[in-house]
Each structure stands twice: as C-alpha cells, then as structure tokens.
Amino acid sequence: MRRYHLVRRADSQLKRTLIYYAIGILVSLTIGAILLISLGINPFQYYGRMFTIGLVGNKYGYKSIEGLLKVFVPLLITSLALSLSFKMRFWNIGGEGEFLIGAICASIVAFNSSGMPNFVTVVLMCLAAMISSGIIGVAIAALKVRFNTNETLMTLMLNYIMLYVIRYIGDTKADWNFFLREDSERPIFGSFPESAVMGGIPLGKFKLLWAVLIAILLTAVIYIYLKYTKQGYEISVVGDSSATAKYAGMNVGKIVLRTMFISSALIGLAAALAVSSAGTISDTITNDVGWTGIIVAWLSKLSVPAVFVTAILISVLQYGCQAAATQYPAIDVNFADLLQGIILFSVLVADFAANFRIVRKEDAKHA
Predict the structure, then answer these.
(1) Reported pTM
(2) Distance CA 325, CA 313 (A)
(3) What confidence tier does 1 reach under pLDDT thresholds 50, 70, 90?
(4) Whether 335 contacts 57, CB under 8 Å
(5) In sequence order, what DSSP letters do the residues of 347-359 get, joined into one string?
(6) Cα separation of 72 and 66, whole Å?
(7) Mean pLDDT of all residues in 210-231
(8) Using CA atoms, how far apart are residues 132 and 268, in angstroms rounded to an integer?
C-alpha cells in the first residue's frame, strides 16, 4: 500500500518561488481571459487597462493615482500590523473588526470637530482609533494569556459583531445618531466637516495625502523595530517557541499583550487615515483589508519589505480591476472581485507548491 505525504521543501529557493508565482498568475489570467471572451470583451484591452489602472489616455490620470493610494495605504498598514501578531503565532483574524472599531471612533471625533484646526482633528481621530482598537486587541490577548482561549475564534467573531454595529448605526435614524445626514429622508452617512478631511502636499493637480507619507514612515519604523530592537527580538523568540522564551526569562504574557496592542492600534490608525481620506464612513470602508491583509502578510513571509512590495501589487490589482470594469458595461464590480479572487487563489496555490511537495512512502506492513 502506498501512502502520500506533504513534506515541506528543505531548500527555499527564490527562483523556484518566482517561477511558480508566474505560472499561477498566468493560469489565473488565462481563466479570466476565457471569461472575458465569453462576455464579448477583448482580454488584452481589459488587462491593459487593469494593469495601467486606467492611466493610459486619461486626462484625469492623477485621480487614478490618488484612488490607488487610498487603496494602498490601509492595506499596507493593516498587513504590517497583522504581520506583527502572526510573527509570534498569535492568529489575529480580526483585522476587519478592529478596523471598523477604529473607523467608528475616529468618525465620532470627526463629526464633532467643527471649528477645530485640521491637524489637531486628524491627530485626535488617529489617537481615538488607535486607543479603541488597541484596547480590543489587548482584551482578546488577555483572554488568551489568562484562560488560553482560541484567539482565532475570538477575533473572527469580532469582525461580524462590528459589521452589525456599523450597519445598525447606518440604518437607524435617531436624535443621538450624528453619523447620519439630517437633511436626508432615508438613513445615509454624512460627510465629515472640512476640519476632519485629510490634507496633503499639492503637486500640480495631484495631491499627495499625508497618509501616504505616514504609511511609508511607519513601514521603516516597523522594520527597525522588528530587526534591531529587544522587543522585536522577543516577538521572534515567542513565535519560534514560547517554551524557549520562558526558559530564557522572557515574560511571554507581557510580550503577547504588548504586541497585540501595537498590532490592533496600527489597524485602528489605518482606519482613521482611511475615513479621513474618504471624508466619510460607511459599512464598506474597510475594502476587505482585514482579509486581504492576511494574504499579503503570508505571501510576504511576514517580511516587512516584502509586505510593502506585495501590498503595492495587490493594490494595483484591486484598483486596476475596478478601473477596467468602468470601461465595459457588461462587467460589474462582481466580476472584478471574481478576477481578484482567481488571481489571489492561484498565487496562494503557487506559494503552497513552491514550499511543499508530495512524496510517496511505502507502507511497511503491506510491502
């Protein structure tokens, strides 16, 4: 009797991984091309517009870049935040919920900031979002440390709880609900006052939002934190073996609490920057970064530079699909989501194939 086993490859070759990735992307694009042809659309034209995010032949191309950066910043920060917790084998699947908590708290500040200076308002929004999300992260970590609860289930449930909370806010007309427009007969989220809208550096018609600069600076800070600080080293040791960390005299519980606070607070920061850049809040404000961030983190092997590059590529894919879909009436946003899913799934399969192999083993009892 022959048995088959999955075995991790002993050697991790970058060349092999890139080849597998290329094959996965090629397969996914081929599947997408078949679907496009079935809809009567030229796949080369569609892909050309997708990968150029609609810049070619667009006199408002700067708007496309601004839109791309609004997708990129929350995804990058959320992916970096999740990488921190994943590095110590704490499975924080609650990025969506933590993002929504931060967005709600940042919006509370925004809707009550009339007359305040823009810089002060945005800073207060960021602080409110970071503290609220960080507290939730610490609470879940404390339950894990004290009672050994399953952090995957706890953080996963948080996503749905917060989704229903923000939907309740968006559907309920009441005197207390300052989130909604007063001049609308049906419930609809209002726009932030000018004092709460993210500013930036004007470069001609293009405006480089401060959020982009904050995200780039944050990437450098997290890289230094993980690579050159004692706290970063402790995260790696706990991730490799909590028993070893305890033997070395490290306070594992304290490390878990501290890291989860930082991780969740960073997701809250991403939410504050997102709502401030958008100038409003909605139940779709996350753009699924809590889920996509998990994919980005794992494809990047939890490496900060790789997270930065992967987040750019995934953002181009997401925004490019949306830009291409607007050109063709036969395609809606659902097709864009479908194509993104096919590509991401193919890349994940390619990553799995690059790191594992199937071996055949003879069963000695039946030899």
Answers:
(1) 0.91
(2) 18
(3) low
(4) no
(5) HHHHHHHHHEEEE
(6) 10
(7) 96
(8) 7
Amino acid at 187: P
Distance CA 279, CA 197 (A): 5
Per-residue tokens: 107: 């919006």
Q: Which of 292, 284, 285, 336 is nearest to 311 (CA)?
A: 292
What tokens appear for 7 in the block?
A: 């075995």
What's the farthest any 2 CA atoms get from each other in the chain?
A: 82
pLDDT tens, residue by residue, 83-142: 999 999 999 999 999 999 999 999 999 999 988 999 999 999 999 999 999 999 999 999
The residue count of the chain comes to: 367
C-alpha 109, offset from chain centre:
23
* Cα(11)–Cα(17) distance, integer angstroms: 11
Q: Residue 362's pLDDT is what?
A: 59
Q: Which two tokens stand for residue 73?
A: 């910043």
Q: At a CB cut-off of 8 Å and minimum separation 6, what does 364 contact?
A: none
> Alpha helix locations (H) across the chain?
14-38, 43-51, 61-87, 95-111, 118-147, 151-171, 210-228, 230-240, 242-247, 252-278, 289-299, 304-325, 333-355
Mapping DSSP to helix (H, G, I), strand (E, B) and coil, where does residue 204 land? coil
